[in-house]
Design goal:
about 550 residues; mainly alpha; 23 helices; about 75% helix; about 0% strand
Length: about 550
């Protein structure tokens, strides 16, 4: 019975592609046809259900185009569809599970690499079906299948693949019909319910009816479960789905259990006969085989030994014929099970390796992006720094030009003072009369005397040159200039250094030479004070001064 359950699931999982686009002229050269036309032709052959060899030939041409050009995007996309269809044909018609697995696993790798979640959802469901078909209860491969089904559902929801979501609702119901709840599928069922909110159409009605039926079945409300399952069958009958009889077979399979729980044996027998007629009419020998098995189990339960014998005989006869024709005995070969398990582990390892490569690529891209941002920031900072240097240089030049104008003005005022005995003292500062009269003399001496640029020049030297007490000179500088003597003196020395740089060739002289020329005994102290006063280092300023020419500070 367990084998029957999963064979029914295998048939339900097989989804029709679109309707036929035309079979085309028989015997046409397949190699000359575009891939889209070949896929369409194969779909028409599959729909006819009697031309599967031709479908395999057309799909194989499309698949081989991928092997010839594995990097071609169009070839990859078409091959994903073709290999998925080949996997279905080999699984559900020819029962060649090795070929089915080869095509489906290759299609899976292509879809994963290309991020094609829509196709990947369908491929994963078909792989899960293959795993279930080729395994028994408790096999490790069965756990792989359950993982694939859950992954397929989420891929289908993300890509809005309604066909796969509908199949999953049916699949989960079939899996859990012999249990008392949704079990590990509980979260998946919630996801389908959320997806179904606000949806219309026969597929949405089918999903809602099947899930509601199973909820009632688990609650042991069997009449209500029967009602919902019949609604699901109505949705199938009214739909235009290709291969809709497969959904009907799965739904009727669940309905058998509901009838059995209610001991409606007459209805259950009629349902089994209906399923048998459908399997024969649609030429579905796998359904027919296991419906024979179900009929034998049913008649054994209601104690009709003659009927049990009849259907067991039909089951063995058909199974022997299928084994000879299609090799269905391969379903239990240990070699196939081991191959699936081994290959699945390899796929997992490859997937992890690709994830690692993607992470490394992401890190590399992030590092490159950070370096690029830092480089751009450095370039911007460099140009901003150059602009600021230019602005500081221009500002300093303006100050020196203003100082030159002030010298001329002070010289003119000095001449007026000598010409007029009653001239008023200058009022350049808010100070006492003595300081106000003394400060112009201090300025005149600072402008004209070269002594101030002599190393070791101090306040006593200035007072000696003026012939004025230190207290009076210090007071005049503090009140009229707002600074002390050392700051006042260093200002003159720094401005003189700027003028020297304008007319001195840096190739012949050094910063130490300039510093010594204006009275500094240490390059370090000179450079520190120069940067603080001007905003540029001596070297930076010297370079710009020479670049702008000697005319900039010519007196």
């Amino acid at each position: 019975m367990t084998r029957y359950l999963f064979t029914v699931l295998a048939a339900v999982m097989m989804l029709a592609s679109s309707h036929a686009r035309g079979a085309g002229r028989d015997g046409a050269d397949l190699e000359s046809q575009p891939s889209a036309a070949l896929i369409g032709r194969a779909e028409s052959y599959i729909e006819a259900d009697t031309l599967l060899d031709r479908a395999v030939a057309a799909l194989s041409v499309v698949a081989n185009r991928y092997y010839a050009k594995p990097a071609d995007k169009a070839a990859r996309k078409d091959a994903t569809v073709a290999m998925n269809q080949l996997g279905k044909i080999y699984s559900f018609r020819f029962y060649d599970f090795r070929k089915a697995y080869t095509n489906l696993s290759t299609a899976r790798l292509i879809a994963e690499e290309d991020g094609d979640d829509y196709q990947l959802a369908d491929i994963l469901v078909n792989l899960a079906n293959l795993y279930h078909t080729c395994s028994d209860e408790g096999d490790k491969i069965r756990s792989y299948a359950d993982e694939l089904l859950s992954e397929a559902l989420h891929k289908a929801i993300n890509s809005d693949n309604r066909d796969v979501i509908t199949r999953q609702a049916s699949n989960m119901a079939i899996f859990r019909v012999q249990n008392s709840g949704w079990g590990t599928y509980a979260e998946d069922v919630k996801a389908i319910r959320r997806y179904n909110e606000g949806k219309s159409g026969y597929d949405a009605a089918f999903r809602s009816s099947v899930i509601a039926a199973m909820d009632s079945y688990f609650a042991k409300d069997y009449p209500r479960a029967e009602k919902f399952l019949k609604q699901a069958l109505e949705s199938i009958a009214q739909s235009s789905w290709a291969y809709r009889e497969r959904f009907a077979q799965g739904t009727m399979f669940i309905l058998q259990f509901v009838y059995d729980k209610q001991q409606k044996y007459a209805e259950e027998e009629e349902l089994l006969n209906t399923r048998l007629r459908m399997a024969r009419e649609k030429r579905l020998p796998d359904y027919e085989l296991y419906i024979y098995e179900s009929l034998g189990v049913f008649f054994d339960r209601i104690d009709k030994p003659d009927s049990v014998k009849k259907y067991k005989s039909l089951f063995l006869e058909l199974k022997s014929r299928l084994d000879q024709q299609n090799g269905m005995h391969r379903i239990s070969e240990m070699e196939m099970l081991n191959q699936i398990g081994k290959t699945n582990d390899e796929i997992r390892e490859l997937s992890l390796q690709r994830q690692k490569e993607r992470r490394l690529l992401t890190v590399a891209v992030a590092v490159i992006a950070v370096v690029a941002v830092l480089l751009i920031a450095f370039v911007i900072l460099f140009f901003n720094l150059k602009r600021n240097h230019r602005m500081l240089f221009e500002k300093n030049r303006e100050l020196l030009e203003r100082e030159q104008q002030l010298r001329l003005l002070m010289s003119h005022q000095g001449q007026k003072t000598q010409a007029g005995r009653d001239a008023e003292p200058p009022r350049e500062c808010e100070a006492d009369e003595e300081s106000a009269r003394l400060f112009p003399s201090i300025l005149k001496l600072m402008e004209e005397s070269r002594d101030i640029y002599r190393p070791g020049f101090v306040m006593d030297d200035l007072c000696g040159l003026l012939g004025v007490p230190e207290r009076s000179v210090s007071r005049a500088i503090n009140l009229c200039n707002g600074t002390n003597f050392h700051t006042f003196l260093n200002g003159y020395r720094i401005r003189e250094a700027c003028r020297l740089m304008q007319d001195t060739d840096p190739a012949r002289h050094t910063v130490e030479h300039i510093a010594a020329s204006v009275g500094f005994q240490s390059r370090t102290s000179f450079a520190t004070l120069f940067k603080k006063t001007v905003g540029l280092t001596p070297s930076e300023y010297w370079k710009k001064a020479r670049k702008n020419g000697p005319a900039a500070y010519r007196e």
